Amino acid sequence: MGNARLDYIWLDGYEVVNIRTKAQIHPDSAYTGALEDTPNWGFDGSSTQQAEGHDSDCILKPARVYPNPFRSNAYLVLCEVFHRDGTPHETNTRHKIDRDREAEFWFGFEQEYILLTSNGRPVGFPDGGFPEPQGPYYCAVGAHRVEAREMIDEHWDACLEADLGVTGINAEVMLGQWEFQCFGKGALRAADDLIVARFLLHLISEKYNLIATLDPKPISGDWNGSGMHANFSFDYLRDTGGKEYVEALCEGFRPFHQEHIAVYGAGNERRLTGSHETASIDQFSFGASNRGASIRIPLYTSTHDWKGYLEDRRPASDADPYLVVDRIMRTVSIAHEKAV
């Protein structure tokens, strides 16, 4: 069968992080995808905003291994970045997450994105003009109502083949806008799966000559932006909850609003305007079934004895999921103590 192909994946050091990748052949023909048998590798950090040219070597340390959905005897290797002395790189946001608590947190990300053609216009938008106003496109079916469904289905199939927690897809409010949902039991698993799902999305978009942009508002005007809503739960919220507790927990997020906004993605001020199903970036709010709030208390929670999960609607589509889960976990730790 030959030696396995390993495609290494990591996040670079740009303000809006990009996914980087390169591949090699595993030296052992008996390799079966075990993390402990996956070697470290290196890369030129001076080409990814992660090092200077005079000291450019960075280390890729494998963090999770997935089957490659496009090739046999091949794997996708999600990595953390380290300095050559073995210390975590400043851009290694995965390393920030509390390993002692992350397992009890479940996250479900709603990753919105917009497909652009080579001229920078959303797919389906006529040259020099605009389609019909928003209304007929959300969860739509039919020509001129949805675009690029073949690519979207191919992406979902690839995610399932790679054993990612992608649980659903739908066309979104703007023509050319789509969403996939990615769920994981454990903050690290959820965020890891999202990064690899993004990687597969960008990889497949090459085949269709489309750009899957995570810009939170690439088209100004009366069009929805793109978010990465973060649904989250933890042991007490799932098992005990209660209306007073849930409302007090949400209120406990208020003092940390700006700390959340600071790590919830670049360009979010263009999206969080108080319109188009968003709250204002300057004000914190929460409410049951309120998609115009910073945090929505879902119908499931309010109808199941106020036990379940919450949805933070503030993260932008380009947000780093590791920073998002780290900030939510930190705030929950403080807010929970005051709410019980």
Characterise the protein shown here.
The chain has 340 residues and is of the alpha+beta class. It contains seven helices and 13 strands. The chain has two domains: 5-92, Glutamine synthetase, N-terminal domain (Ubiquitin-like (UB roll)), CATH 3.10.20; 102-339, Creatine Kinase, Chain A, domain 2 (2-Layer Sandwich). The strands form two sheets. Strands 6, 7, 8, 9, 10, 11, 12 and 13 form an eight-stranded mixed beta sheet that branches. It has a five-stranded mixed beta sheet with strand order 2-1-5-4-3. A hairpin with a 5-residue loop joins strand 7 and strand 8. Residues 89-340 form the GS catalytic domain. InterPro entries: Gln_synt_N, Gln_synt_N_sf, Gln_synth/guanido_kin_cat_dom, Gln_synth_cat_dom, Gln_synth_gly_rich_site, Gln_synth_N_conserv_site, Glutamine_Synthetase. Residues 2-86 form the GS beta-grasp domain. Homooctamer and homotetramer.
